[in-house]
Every structure is written in C-alpha cells, then in structure tokens.
Amino acid sequence: MQLTKFNYDNKIVRDFGIATIIWGIVGMSVGLLVAIQLVWPFMNFELQYTTFGRVRPLHTNAVIFAFVGNAIFMGVYYSLQRLLKARMFSDFLSRLHFWGWQLIILAAAITLPLGLTTSHEYAELEWPIDVGITIIWVVFGINMFGTIIKRRERHMYVAIWFYIATFVTVAVLHIVNSVQLPISMWKSYYLYAGVQDALVQWWYGHNAVAFFLTTPYLGLMYYFLPKMANRPIYSYKLSILHFWSLIFIYIWAGPHHLLYTSLPGWVQSLGVAFSVMLIAPSWGGMINGLLTLRGAWDKVRSEPTLKFMVVALTAYGMATFEGPMLSLKQVNAIAHFTDWIVAHVHVGALGWNGFMTFGILYWLIPRIYKTELFSKKLASVHFWIGTLGILFYAIPMYWAAVVQGLMWKEFTPEGVLKYPNFLATTLQIIPMHMMRAIGGTLYLSGALLMTYNLVKTMKKGKLLANEPAEAPELTPVVVNERSKHRRLERKPILFLVLALITILIGGMVQMMPTFLISSNVPTISSVKPYTALELQGRDLYIREGCVNCHTQTVRPFRSETVRYGDYSKAGEFVYDHPFLWGSKRTGPDLHRIGKKYPNKWHFDHMLDPTITSPGSIMPPYPWLIEQTLDTTATKAKLNAMRLLGVPYTDEDVVQANDKLRQQAEEIAADLSQQGADVRADREIVALIAYLQRLGTDIKAQETPVAVNE
C-alpha cells in the first residue's frame, strides 16, 4: 500500500499553547485581585475601572475563554491532525482563528473594565464582540470539518465526537443567548425580558460550562490520557453511552440555577430531574478515564503529567456529583446565593480544567520541541502547590457557605430573625475569604513555576514546526461493520446533524412553552415601565456590575420575606431587559429596596458605604457623584424598549429628557434638603431613582405565603 507523506502543523499548536500560558497567568492574577477585594475593598486602588463589579466578569471571561479556550484549541489542533492523519484543512484559517481569538480576548479586556457589559453571566460582552466570536467560531468549524472530510483515517475516534458536539452546541448557545437589539456601538438590550431572559441565560450559562468547560476537555482526556499512560481507553462501549447520554441530558439542567424563583414550576422540576440523571453519564466518563490507568498506576508515581490527569478526573467527578446534589431543592435552599456555588465552580475550573491543561502542556510542549521536559521535579512541585491551592481555596468556601446559609435563615425562639442585618453574615466569613486568597496565591504560584519550566524546555529544544508524517490515502472501499455506531463514525455530517438534534430537544421543550403560553408569565396590571431617569439609572447599575454582588429576586422562604419583603412575582419583571436576578449574595437582595431608605441614605452609601454600613466591604463610588449623566441616547433607549414591547407612548419618547430632568431635579432638591448638595445632572441621581423604584409596583402582602423552614 502506497503511503502519502505530509506534515503536521505544530506551529499553530505552539501558538495556542503560549497564549494559554499567558492568558492563564493574566486570568488567575485578576482572580486573585477579585478575591483580595472581598477582604480589602480599597484594593480597587480607588479607580472605577478596577472595582469588583467590573473586574469580576473580566476574571471569568479571561479564565473561561482566554485560558481554557486557548487550551482547547491547542489540544484540538494537536490531536485532530494525528487522529485523522491529516494536516489541518487550511493554514490560513488556522492563523485567522488564532489571531481573531486573541483580538476578541483583547476587546473583552478593554471593554469590561470600561463598564461596557450586557450583564449576562459568562456572556457579558457587547454585540460587536459577539459578532466577532460568531465569525471566528465559524472559521474554527470550517477548519475542523475540512480536516475531517480530507482525513486518511476512516473512523472518527471518540475525542472527535466530543469536538463535534462542542462546536455545534456552543454555536447554538451563543446565537440564542446573544439575540440583542443594538442602540449604539457599545450598548444593546436583550430581546428577552424577565423570566424568559432568565431561562435563556441559565440555559446558556449552565451549558457553557457543559459544552465549553466539559465536553471539549473530555475529548482531550480521551486522546491525551491513553497517550500519557500508553494504554488503550478502558471501554469503547462505555464511551458511546457516555457521549450520547451526556449531550442529551446536560442541555436540560439549566433551570436548576433558578429554583425557588418566579420561573414556572414545571420548568424547575424538569431541571431538577435531568440534573439528578446527569450524574450517571458524567461519572461514566470519569470511570472510563480512571480505569484506563489500570496497570499503569506505577507511572502515576513518577510522571507529573499523569498526576495532574488523575486529580483532574477526580475533581471532575466531585464537581459532577455536586451539581446534581445542588439541584435538589432541600440542598439548594441552603447553598444557593452562597459561597458554595463559588467553591463548586472552582473545583471544576481549578481542578478539572486547570490541572488537565497543565498536564497536557507538560506532555505536549517537549514533544513539539523534540526534547525532554526541563525539570520533572519542578513539575511535581507545581502539582503539590496547585493541589494545596485548590484545598485552601475550596474548603474555606464550603465552610463560609454553610455559615452564610444558616445565618441567613436563623430565627430566635421568639420568631425574630437572629441576624436581621445582612452585613453580620458578610463580616463573619471574612477570615474564610482570606484563606481563599491564600489558596489563589498558591495556585497562581504553581502556574508561574510551570511557565518557567516550559520556557526553559522551549529554549532547550527547537520547535518542529512541520512534523513529517505518512499514511495511506483513504480508500473508497467500505467494509461492512456490525456496529451501527461504527458506520455512523464514517459519516461526520450525519454525526453533526444527530448531535444537533440531540441537544436541541431539551432546549426547545423547556423554552418554547415559556415563550408561547402566556400563563407561564402572568402579568400584573400595576407594574409600569421604568421612567426615562430610572432606565438610565438601571443602565448605570448594569455598568457598575452591581448584579455581581446583589440579587433582585426574593425567594418564597420565611427568612427572606421577613428580611426583604414579599416574594418576587413573574409579572414584576416583564419590562426588564435584561433580567438582574443575580447568582451570588455578597450583599443583600435589592428587589424590595425601593422607598425603604431616604434618598440621602443611598447617596451616602455610594459615597462611602461605611457611613451607612460600618464594616462594609463594598467600595465607594465617588465618580457617580462627579460624572455627568449622558442623556444623548435617552430617546434611542426608549425607542428600543418600544420595539421590544415595552408600552412607552410617543409622548414618553418625545418628552423623555424633559421628564428625566424634572424627576432628577426633584431628587436633587430632596438631597439638598437633607444636606447633600449634588447637581441634578449627575449619575448618582439616576441610580438613586432606579433603586427607589425597585419592588414598589406591587403592595406587599401583610402575611406573605412562604415556604415554611
């Protein structure tokens, strides 16, 4: 049989590898800054661009899309060529993909600190960057499927199944969750509102974790772990069951992020049911990986790469056990909005994604540079420092979560909240946040040690940019296979279509009725659109990232209705583009904050939070008092809302800025009477207007119906 000679492209693998290392250090450093600010808020250096609210999404985007994203592409470009015995379809598309992705990351790093954000978690980037992501993702898809089509290996190995599912599902998630109405170059409103927006966001948010942080890494595990251990994957049949059940079940689980909210109960129940089922395929993948090491555990003692892989798989198993457990309503009632969610996410991010990335880098870089790793000893030191970092991070966060959850709910024997002041619970867990920062420092130190080790490795060797290879061309002869799945593996486009259908079922069943059947989101006649000033204030609230610390949904618990007021109703959010329910309470819920305090209280709170809340870890916002409110886009904002179904009249739009100034002058006059001289055209006035509106559209029931705790 005649062999065809060709070359693997290692240069693109090297480029994505270097980007992974650089962005990993950047993302982890920003994460450490975020953690430190939860202990010492002055660590924002008194700049509006480095406050927790603006920097926290920068951290998540840098870690998810810059660090993990580049690592995915590094691993895919290396493994895909070898599994298919073909060079990537187009060197030009490979380069376009690389540089386009780096430009997207750079755009995120610039816009997020400037407060240009949509506020959707893990999807904060504004619409021009979303368009760029779409284009580059299509470039990646063309390059990947072009390579699959020109392959020299007939069957597609299991890793490629996960790459295909990742490509198609991320495309669907990104498009559906990014449907926005632009009103300017860097401002847009989501088409969905309130409950529907929440459902779409957490359908996206949970499945971004599933199909960006999980499925591609499972594909990398199926390729790199057998290579490192020099063992075949434990079970081909288990991999088939693992793959199809995982991608079918995962897509249903998003609503477990919205338990006890005003999301329709049937959607919540579906989310819980499928979340519990999810443990089976998730652990199927973990077991398939760990059992691959049968007969190779002696290598784990001596090979740092395998150490990282074993802990990565263990962290994956733990995180995928926690997910179903947290979806149980009894557990969710305690854990949600606490630091348990932070710990859960970071066990996955630091353990699963981080450690597998480190293991692959240590294995891959020496091979493309045709040399040995500079120091296995340093790699082992990195492993132990990183493992300690994860433990120092996660354990205090679990501890903090239990303390928070129980303190929020505790009543005295007389039936009064024992800790009515939310700040008491925040101050109680500051020592745990200090421990978390120490854990982050250890983890980052390990990454810096790895960087040194890999730089020395690169200097010791020389990049084999075009690695020679040879393989027979794919012949048209088809051998009959008994296995239907084997036959499917020869047909990549059919495989793509079947994966697409599999992931669409869950999303359609959950979302279509919520959008088409009005009884799912009952309206309330007393709920009116925001005034022009309140809408501007809401946009400032979004700009400052307040949703990163404060929720805006009161759950039907006795502890919450006593603390905050009547529980939240679906009809209260029908004009909210986007929804702002939040996912973490570092501060109290704000849905019923309107009219609870005078305007002067809010002014003082933003000027210096310790005036109203001694010991607060919220940073001051003096720039809101100094900066003039930009009203040039007021009419455009109201017109956009009209297009989205908000019932503003022609008069509302024409007189928008006149009415805005009138309401602003009333608030400024009230502030002046209270001893706070501030001009009516300042941003603080608009923010106060919005905060004073929250939760005032319906009258609180005197004896609200609540879940008995």
From TrEMBL:
Membrane-topology descriptor: Multi-pass membrane protein
Cofactor(s) for this UniProt protein: Cu(2+); heme b
Leading EC class: translocase
Catalytic activity annotation: 4 Fe(II)-[cytochrome c] + O2 + 8 H(+)(in) = 4 Fe(III)-[cytochrome c] + 2 H2O + 4 H(+)(out)
Domain Cytochrome c: 532-695
Keyword Repeat (UniProt): no
Annotated compartments: Cell membrane
Keywords per UniProt: Cell membrane, Copper, Electron transport, Heme, Iron, Membrane, Metal-binding, Respiratory chain, Translocase, Transmembrane, Transmembrane helix, Transport
EC number: 7.1.1.9
All copies of domain Cytochrome oxidase subunit I profile, residue ranges: 16-468
Record carries keyword Transmembrane helix: yes
One Pfam family per UniProt: FixO
TM regions (residue ranges): 21-42, 62-80, 92-115, 127-148, 160-183, 203-224, 236-253, 273-293, 305-321, 341-365, 377-399, 437-455, 493-516
Name assigned to this protein: cytochrome-c oxidase
Family of the protein in this entry: Belongs to the heme-copper respiratory oxidase family.
Pathway the protein contributes to: Energy metabolism; oxidative phosphorylation
InterPro entries tied to this protein: Cyt_c-like_dom (IPR009056), Cyt_c-like_dom_sf (IPR036909), Cyt_c_oxase-like_su1_dom (IPR023616), Cyt_c_oxase-like_su1_sf (IPR036927), Cyt_C_Oxase_1 (IPR000883), Cyt_c_Oxase_su1_BS (IPR023615), Cyt_c_oxidase_cbb3_su1 (IPR004677), Cyt_c_oxidase_monohaem-su/FixO (IPR003468)
Main location: membrane
Protein origin, superkingdom: Bacteria
Coiled coil: none
